[in-house]
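All the exercises in this workshop are built on plain-text protein records. A learned vocabulary of local backbone shapes supplies the integers on the structure line. Once this layout is familiar, the rest of the handout is easier to follow. An example says more than a description, so a record of this kind follows:
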Amino acid sequence: MGQPERGLDTVDWGQPRNGVLKKTRTTLEMIKWEHSIFALPFALTAALLAAHGLPAWPVLGWILVAMVAARSSAMAFNRWADAELDAANPRTGGRALPAGLLTRQFVLGFTVAAAAVFLVAAAKLNRLTLELAPMVLVVLLGYSYLKRFTRWSHMGLGLALGLAPAGAWIAVRGALDPRILVLTAAVTLWVAGFDVLYACQDYDHDRGAGLHSVPQAHGLTAAFWAARGMHLAMLGLLVWFGRLFNFGVAGWLGVAAVGLLLAYEHSLVSPKDLRRLNAAFFTMNGVIALVFFGFVAADVWVKW
């Protein structure tokens, strides 16, 4: 007799479901989806200013889809491109690919799927967003290789996030206003500055692996001064941005709050003490982005 067919009473329905849920959790952890909070508030700030208030709900929805999809594609590709480097680094050896929790084929497929969703969202917004979308993907995906060639790869990551407000403005208006590029520059320097700090923890590994970064090239003390300089320049750009858009009291309070939070962020770490780097990098930067958006949104709401 042949093997009996599996009936409903013999199927372990929980195991496949658990497998899918586990893979989903692992994928979300790989792309650090919660870190979308870094660039998203700045994109929403630009959208509010472009619309002189709340954009149409379909536009806002597609902006959110485009933001999440673009970032997911970039993060997944970064993990795919850096799999061997991550495996050799004690700090990153437990990530999904080096640990064998996900396959390279799956991660590459996820990258392509997320990029496709981004292109669909761009097409749903307007023609210019669709035309610029491939160039945006080049920046987002190309960043992963910069540390193999230049110590200023931090600026590449900064630009990848800095494009968010410019993209959101174009999504609302269908054209680029040069004023929004000031916010793009501010976000670029903000992200580059905290990425310099984050790279300090890989100083020894990067030197041995032949990877480039500001800490690797100039040492930890110089890297901290570079990050401080970038963040001071960011504040200067936010002041310029506020003047360009005629900020009211709430908007200027937002700029001041960013300055205070950046000062606190830098107080958490030093070249000799990186223990609280995760708090400075993840928690405080999320707070900075949300606080700035909240104050500017209040400013726009009053004028609206």
Notes: DSSP finds 13 helices and no strands in the chain.
